[in-house]
Specification:
The chain has 873 residues and is α+β, with helices and mostly antiparallel strands. Helices cover 48% and strands 18% of the residues. The chain is built from 32 helices and 28 strands. The strands form 4 sheets. Strands 10, 11, 12, 13, 16, 17, 18, 19, 20, 21 and 22 form an 11-stranded mixed sheet that branches. It has an 8-stranded mixed sheet with strand order 8-28-27-26-9-23-25-24, sandwiched between helices. Strands 1, 2, 3, 4, 5, 6 and 7 form a 7-stranded antiparallel sheet that branches. β19 and β20 form a beta hairpin. The termini are far apart.
Length: 873
């Protein structure tokens, strides 16, 4: 049986080992040095050199720390990506039981080749893609590949079958787990030809693009570089033409160029993103990659997995249909809360419903699962159920669902065990598709049956009515029950039939059963997910569901979750019939993608991206990893997610909750809004500083500010106030606006106009302050001091204007951001010390301002917001 060692060795030399590809590796040093290629980083490094030449070592150290912080963060993000394929390789089996030379041997799984015969039993990791030759009650957990958690039954197929496509009942797949039974299989694909290998190949071929924010900051950096060179040349040239000392003018030009560089921008961006990461962590979202926080804010499409994200991932009995009544159970998942009602939401007293009670007894007794109550800490509760508790479940989820439904009617295992004894059990079998339990209630002996409707109902000759009476089952009534089971299945309910018969001994093959009812169960949508989907719709963010489940089930869940309003459903097989052009044209019509494989998920994400959408993709299994990595923001599930998916993801949801993701989108929008706010602030201030110096030289005036004074301005205005502005809370209505377009420029919405106008006003008011004091006979030090006060104070007032792009300074609560108030007070105190403390006056070349000079400086500072508010709004 199987191959000989010689045959295997020959095939191994031709086909290669049964391992996943190594992928492209980049050394840690190369990754780290690559962080310094950004234009803004190069500008900052140049500014560092200049600061050292000017003797400003503190500025040089600050800039170097900023650059290193950004480089370390970028290095960590890229280095994590290098480990994604390593995590995938760790999921393959290390050994395999294989027939070689007619003997069963345990060999390294890497040495398997096509044609090998392997033996697999419960608990094994399947070592390669194999066609099943022989199976005995064999079930495989393929969730890592398909995303669906239910174990899949496998049956024998043709030995010559070599089609290893997903969801085939006669194929077992590399990386999946054997859950139950034993099987013999013939290897048909190894290494990169397996389904796991194909996923590895997709991961290896995906290159992560820069985020929208990184692209915009790179564009800003290039613009700043050009501005710095132009400013330096213009100022130095104008001074030299006036006959000033060439060296002095070059140093002045360089100093002003430094003033034009928003050196606080990278640090402020990093701090704003880090603070958002901290806030998101408190809301159960762990961020792997810093810049993905902002990308979340411009998400226009969320591609969500179904199981565990939109749904509870907990089977729940929602309906029990007896022969003459339909009963409904409230309370989803494992929650203790819940009640039993009839149609029309009529409350039911279960004690009086004998038919219902007998059906629930059957569900409890035909169960090997166990449930017990547990109190859930409020921090882990969902929605309004805080403190109400959940059931702790052990065993099969379907059987647990029946136990929980019975508990809602007051029937528990412990209660029944005091009244009956289990005399024998016939466990569920994949061939018979039912289980039976022989019970004794004193002298009364009964056999309870639970199984598939098409197996149990044909065995029934009677049914039990609501009063507990046994009535003969006529052909017309049987058809009515069959139609009821079909109608429940059409609503994507999993239907189990319950029945009973009297018997003194265990007779599982009996055919004279009494029908008790149909239990309908489902994995219900989370209430939080429903609210999150509504919130996304209000924010013009499209939510689509991508699942490996059947189309009918997916559509039913989507309807309950509110996803199918105006949308359509499509399967992976139907996707295969569409070209990329047809898919790009029509993909906007669909909100449900069912029965999809990993390659379909990747194709869906790429299609949305080609349409200009910013795509966020959630996933948990290995099958999701390529699409998660390809998406603009990849999101992994923290509870059910595999290591592979977590490594590929940008964000991990610690509670697997879609509502947590929507909260993260809100944080992303807030971060981007805050980045625009402090970019507006920093550039306006820098334009004001450059304009002050440039116009002074062009107009033939004395030096408006000394280089050391310009550095003081940068110290008190570019640091703490900008950082505090990055802590601005979300503006009201931020989630009621549509996401920004992927191609939208950083200065969209007239931001550049606002920046230039403010910068001009700041520069002109500073010059006006200088000339006014000069005309009143002030000394050069007094004029510069007045200009310094005006320049700093007008910027500190402007920082409050930048808190909103839609409201003026006089329509905002000045104490809405107390961190900003504190930062401005500290900056003001530093300025006051520079003009009031004699020792500092000597360092900065300032003079103690008289009352008239002070009023002039403050007056021109206050004129800036008054004039700009009137003109620009």
């Amino acid at each position: 049986m199987g191959l000989t060692e010689k045959e295997a060795a020959e095939r191994l030399s031709v086909e290669g080992e049964n391992v996943l590809g190594e992928g492209r590796k980049t050394g840690p040093l190369k990754i780290f040095l690559g962080q310094f290629r950004d234009i803004m980083v190069m500008i900052l490094l140049g500014a560092t050199v200049i600061s050292v030449l000017l003797g400003e070592l503190s500025d040089a150290v600050t800039i170097i720390l900023i650059v290193l912080l950004d480089a370390v963060l970028g290095f960590i993000q890229e280095f994590r990506t290098e480990h994604t394929l390593e995590a995938l390789r760790s999921m393959t089996s290390p050994t395999a039981k294989c027939w070689r030379d007619g003997k069963l041997k345990e060999i390294p799984a890497s040495k398997l080749v096509r044609g090998d015969i392997v033996e697999i039993e419960a608990g094994d990791r399947i070592p390669a893609d194999c066609v099943v030759l022989k199976a005995s009650g064999f079930f495989s957990d393929e969730s890592v590949l398909t995303g669906e958690s239910s174990a899949v039954e496998k049956s024998a197929g043709a030995e010559e079958d070599t089609d290893n496509s997903l969801n085939r009942p006669n194929i077992v797949y590399c990386g999946a787990s054997a859950v139950k039974g034993v099987c013999r299989g013939k290897v048909i694909a190894t290494g990169m030809d397996t389904q796991m290998g194909k996923i590895s190949g997709m991961l290896r071929d995906i290159d992560k693009e820069p985020t929208p924010l990184q692209k915009r900051l790179a564009e800003l950096g290039k613009a700043v570089a050009v501005i710095c060179l132009v400013v330096c040349a213009a100022v130095a040239g104008a001074g030299i033409l006036r006959g000033e000392n060439i060296f002095d003018m070059l140093m002045t030009g360089i100093t002003i160029a430094i003033a034009a560089i928003p050196e606080g921008l990278p640090a402020t961006v990093t701090i704003a993103l880090a603070l958002a990461v901290s806030r998101m962590m408190k809301q159960k979202a762990l961020v792997n990659k810093l810049h993905s926080v902002e990308t979340l804010g411009c998400t226009s499409v969320i591609c969500s997995d179904k199981t565990g994200t939109i749904t509870e991932n907990r089977m729940t009995v929602t309906e029990l249909s007896t022969a003459d009544e339909d009963y409904f159970f409230s309370g989803m998942g494992y929650r203790v809360s819940g009640a039993v009602t009839r149609a029309g939401d009529i409350a039911v007293n279960p004690v009086t419903e004998k038919g219902l009670i007998e059906a629930l007894k059957c569900g409890v007794l035909c169960s090997t699962a166990e449930i017990s109550t547990q109190e859930v800490p409020k921090s882990r509760n969902r929605g309004s159920l805080a403190g109400k508790g959940e059931w702790s479940v052990a065993g099969d989820p379907t059987e647990a669902a029946l136990l929980i439904a019975a508990a809602k009617a007051g029937i528990t295992k412990s209660l029944l065990s005091s009244k009956c004894s289990v005399l024998g059990e016939y466990p569920f079998d994949s061939e018979t598709r039912f289980m039976a339990v022989h019970c004794g209630f004193g002298s009364d002996k009964r056999i309870y049956f639970k199984g598939a409707e098409e197996v149990i109902l044909p065995r029934c000759s009677m049914y039990m009515n609501g009063r507990g009476e046994k009535i003969p089952l006529t052909a017309s009534f049987r058809r009515k029950l069959e139609e009821k089971a079909s109608e429940m299945s059409d609503r994507a309910l999993r239907v189990l039939a319950l029945a009973v018969c009297g018997s003194e001994k265990m007779e599982p093959e009996r055919g004279d059963l009494v029908f008790l009812g149909f239990a309908g169960m489902t994995d219900p949508p989370r209430e939080e997910a429903k609210a999150a989907i509504r919130q996304c719709a209000a924010a013009s963010v499209k939510t689509v569901m991508i699942t490996g489940d059947h189309k009918n089930t997916a559509v039913a869940v989507a309807k309950k979750a509110g996803l199918l309003k105006g949308g359509m459903a499509i399967t992976g097989e139907e996707l295969n019939m569409l070209s990329d052009e047809e898919l790009d044209r029509d993909i906007g019509k669909y909100t449900v993608f069912a029965r999809v494989e990993p390659v379909h998920k990747l194709r869906i994400v790429r299609s949305f991206k080609r349409r200009g959408e910013i795509v966020t993709m959630t996933g948990d299994g290995v099958n999701d990893a390529p699409a998660v990595k390809e998406a603009d923001v990849g999101v992994a599930m923290g509870v059910t997610g595999t290591d592979v998916t977590k490594q590929a993801a940008d964000v991990i949801l610690m509670d697997d909750n879609l509502a947590t993701l929507v909260n993260a989108v809100e944080q992303g929008r807030c971060v981007y809004a805050n980045i625009r706010k402090f970019v507006r602030y920093l550039l306006s201030c820098n334009i004001g500083e450059v304009l002050t110096m440039f116009l002074g030289i062009v107009m033939g005036m004395p030096m408006i500010l000394l280089p050391v004074q310009i550095l003081l301005v940068n110290l008190v205005t570019d640091g703490l106030p900008a950082i505090a502005l990055g802590m601005e809370p979300p503006e009201e209505g931020i989630m009621s606006r549509p996401p920004r377009r992927s191609g939208e420029g950083f200065f969209a919405g007239g931001l550049m106009w606002k920046i230039v106008i403010r910068g001009i006003f700041i520069g002109l008011s500073t010059l006006a302050s200088f000339t006014t004091v000069m005309r009143l006979g002030g000394s050069a030090e007094a004029c510069r001091t007045a200009a310094l006060i005006t320049l700093v104070v007008s910027q500190l007032i402007h920082v409050f204007e930048c808190r909103s792009e839609s409201r003026s300074l006089f329509r905002m609560n000045p104490f809405g951001n107390m961190k900003l108030v504190g930062a401005v007070l500290i900056s003001g105190a530093v300025l006051a010390a520079a003009v009031a403390v004699p020792q500092l006056r000597m360092v900065f070349g300032t003079a103690a301002p008289g009352m008239a000079d002070l009023l002039i400086a403050l007056g021109f500072s206050a004129a800036v917001p008054l004039v700009s508010s009137v003109i620009s709004r």
